[in-house]
Design goal:
heterodimer, A: alpha/beta, Peroxisomal Thiolase, Chain A, domain 1, 10-stranded mixed sheet, two-stranded antiparallel ribbon, 13 helices, 12 strands, 20% strand, B: mainly alpha, 55% helix, 0% strand, globular
Chain lengths: 353, 86
């Protein structure tokens, strides 16, 4: 059975709800960046929006946008990956608890302080009574959701799903992560991230919604061939998983036109990607996306979105390439690999429709 | 009383995040709940109960009393004026 990524929508530190980044990505020089917010009025009733935090608004806007692009009235399932849930409202709720001696707690912040409120709010907004699930597994939250959708379709339980990856980065959380070396200091550039000569990366926020389904719709972006998640694999186990994935999908390493890696500019973690690429084959073009969208727990959602866009537009543009300058024309297969602190690893295989 | 009504309107706008609304947009006597007026719902009612306790030291335990108190901004102001402890 073929499964397709029928549409995608994003809100990020790039121009929202469009593919402008594919031709003209915005270059960020600050370590901390918030998403560029679109006008939410076309997506959310103002009276409903007043009770929504930023992340919920983004999740609903991307979900509606992706559904519209796929021409769907309703989906069979809503599956969300989020590392932190609505952390902004969680902070407000916890701050109030501390400041007010655990009294006078506002219900709105409480409701939105749970991780699974994202999937739930999308379902309420879209009046979807189908399967509803939230995965919160740090750096593989999104991939867990995507794997769930894929397996349920292969089992014939659902025909389509809205799969999202959503995370926000509040100033407080950014500062806390900075203290344990998550971020690079000073002015940033693509060159500094590409050199990967120091610890840390740069922060982004994620809101990506995909419609994944068993129908090859007119504007389907690509095929979703496989998803695999590995916990603390050895290099050999990782390569075995790659070989297994390729064999199961009747592909050779030479059929892979580009590797889409989670390179982020962090010297320690990028070395793992370099080893992976060397083991795979030194001549395979390496693409990356975190220099454009930034790092977050669900940043791999941008990897899938970027790779799907490349397959649909039949090009991996030069600004996405890490080890060469020439655009990759007409890619047919892209293998994505990401790891979170060398603990949770994910492999995703996408192919042209 | 007019001063308290204005203060309450500002607090309601802030706590319920009524974006784009000013105190002048809220009629003193218009119903706060239901289909007319502000058209607030049960979660808003909880927010208003927290507001009364936090800002005015009023504990509103009786749900039936709440119906009367939150009829309009004016009834709310009258109740606050009579029962406030801070």
């Amino acid at each position: 059975m073929d499964i397709f990524i029928q549409s995608a929508a994003q809100i990020s530190i790039q121009n929202p709800l469009c593919d402008d980044w594919f031709e003209n990505p915005i270059a960020h020089t600050e370590g901390y960046n918030r998403s560029i917010e679109p006008d939410y009025k076309p997506f959310i009733n103002p009276m409903a929006a007043r009770r929504m935090g930023k992340l919920i608004k983004r999740a609903i806007a991307t979900s509606i946008s992706a559904k519209q692009s796929a021409g769907l009235e309703q989906v069979d399932a809503i599956i969300t990956g989020t590392g932190l849930g609505c952390i902004e409202n969680t902070e407000k709720f916890l701050s109030a608890m501390v400041n007010e001696g655990e009294q006078f707690l506002q219900p709105t912040y409480f409701m939105q302080s749970t991780h699974n409120t994202i999937s739930s709010q999308i379902a309420l907004n879209q009046k979807c009574n189908g399967y509803n699930c939230t995965y919160s597994h740090r750096g593989t939250s999104f991939e867990s959701g995507l794997s769930d959708a894929l397996q349920q379709m292969l089992l014939g339980r659902i025909n389509n799903a809205l799969v999202g990856g959503h995370d926000e980065m509040t100033p407080d959380y950014y500062n806390m992560l900075g203290k344990i070396g998550y971020w690079k200091q000073g002015e940033l550039s693509e060159q500094i991230l590409r050199q990967s000569s120091s610890k840390g990366s740069f922060a982004g926020e994620t809101s990506v919604a995909l419609i994944v389904g068993t129908n090859k719709t007119e504007h389907a972006l690509c095929k979703l061939r496989d998803v695999d998640l590995l916990y603390k694999p050895s290099e050999t186990a990782l390569q075995d998983a790659v070989q297994r994935m390729l064999q199961q999908n009747n592909l050779q390493p030479s059929d892979i036109d580009a590797l889409m890696l989670g390179l982020s500019g962090d010297c320690e973690y990028d070395a793992i990607y370099t080893n992976f690429a060397n083991a795979f084959g030194k001549n395979t073009p390496i693409a990356w996306y975190k220099h454009i969208f930034g790092e977050s727990f669900t940043a791999p959602a941008f990897g899938v979105y970027a790779a799907a866009t490349c397959l649909a537009k039949e090009s991996v543009p030069s600004h996405l390439l890490h080890n060469q300058k020439n655009e990759v024309k007409s890619p047919r297969n892209i293998l994505l690999y990401n790891h979170f602190q060398n603990i949770d690893h994910s492999l995703i295989l996408l192919s042209k429709c | 009383m007019e001063e308290l009504i204005l203060e309450l309107k500002k607090e309601i706008i802030e706590v319920l995040n009524l974006e784009g609304m000013t105190p002048d947009d809220i009629d003193n006597d218009a119903p706060m709940f239901g289909d007319e007026g502000l058209a607030l719902d049960s979660i808003d009612a909880l927010e208003l109960i927290v507001l009364l306790e936090k800002n005015y030291g009023i504990k509103l335990a009786n749900a039936a009393a709440g119906k009367e108190v939150f009829k309009s901004v004016r009834t709310m102001a009258e109740y606050v004026s009579k029962n406030r402890t801070k």
